[in-house]
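subagent[fold] <- orchestrator: predict structure for attached chain, return tokens only, no commentary.
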Amino acid sequence: MYARLKCQDAALREQASREICWHICQSAAWAEAGLILFYAALPTEPDLSVLFLEALRLGKKCVFPRVRGNELDLYSVTGLTDLKKGAYGIMEPVTDNRVKADDVGLALVPGLAFSKRGLRLGKGKGFYDRLLPAIRGRTAGCCFAFQLEPELPVLEHDAVVELLVTEDGMVVTSDIS
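subagent[fold] -> orchestrator:
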């Protein structure tokens, strides 16, 4: 999967990212969420920066994760300038406005691959597997359509997302058979 992600054409990745953002904007989960967890995309992940700016324009509160040891803490962000390169070379918030995970109304989550049942394959550190159970709002895996797999290996601690969003649309994972 890493090789396929790295070989993806930049223009196609950008177009697919815009379509993913559009599908999220059209969802009830987006409309109902007052506080949204974003991620700062790596070059191989769907870029949600356009969606982040739209959330700010609409007056939604936005948080990004910051690594603390083996955990992800969430911090309120009011603009892209609130992000600086942090752990693992990922952009992280530099603000001090920490937010509790259970206040998140919609969590947008990256992954290396997702199963159609909502299982997420990350990069092996388990950060999101530890964070997602604390989120009481909706959880959405954001990926490109080719990252969807029929099945993934499951470990006891693996977290599941409720929604999957690709450039092809958004689906509720429990509705997929």
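orchestrator: received. Logging for downstream: The chain has one domain: 2-175. Residues 25 and 31 are 7 Å apart (CA to CA).
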